[in-house]
Amino acid sequence: PDAELLARVREGDEQAFVALVARHHSAMLHLARSFVPSAAVAEEVVQDTWVAVLKGLENFEGRSTLKTWLLQILVNRARSSGVREHRSVAVGDATPVVDRARFDASGAWMSPPEHWVEDSDDRLLAEGLAAEIRESLEQLPERQREVVMLRDIDGLSGQEVCDALEISEANQRVLLHRGRSRLRAALELQLGSGC
Asked: How far apart are CA 74 and CA 95, in angstroms?
C-alpha cells in the first residue's frame, strides 16, 4: 500500500500524497508531541517533516520501510528544531531498576498497573490514569521516554525504533527496560503498590 502510494506521489499524484498524509499524519503528530513542549509546535514539526519528505522523495531508496523513513526524518527535525526541552542523562545510569521478575520474556509487564476500563462509569478514573501516565512519561530521561513511547504507545517494532532513533538493538532493549521499570515505579508511587 505505501509502496503504491509512493510511486504515485513520485509521479505527481496529489491525491496519493493526501492519502499518504492521512495514513501517517496522526502517528507522526503523536510522536512529535513527545519531543516538543506543545501541540502547536508538534504540528509545525510534522508539517516541516512533510515538506522534507516531498523534497527528499527522490532520494528514498527503499532500504527501510516508508514509515521508518518518515519517522527518522521526523525525529531528526524535532531534535534539530531546538524546541525540545534539553534533558541530560548520564551514560552510566546507576539508578536501580525494578526487579526483572516483573516483566515477561518479551519485556511486557507481568501485571499491568491498572485494569482496562470496562464500562463507561470508570471513564473518569481512566482519564486520571492517563494523566498520571503522561506525567510519569515526562519524568523519564529523554532516550528512555523516546523508546518507551515508540514501542509501547506508537507500537513500533524494536527494529523500527532502532532505525528511527539510529541506536543499536542492545541499546534499545536497555533503554526500553529501564524506561518501563522507571515508569512502573513512578506509577506504583502515584497509584499505590497494587500495580
From this structure: 30
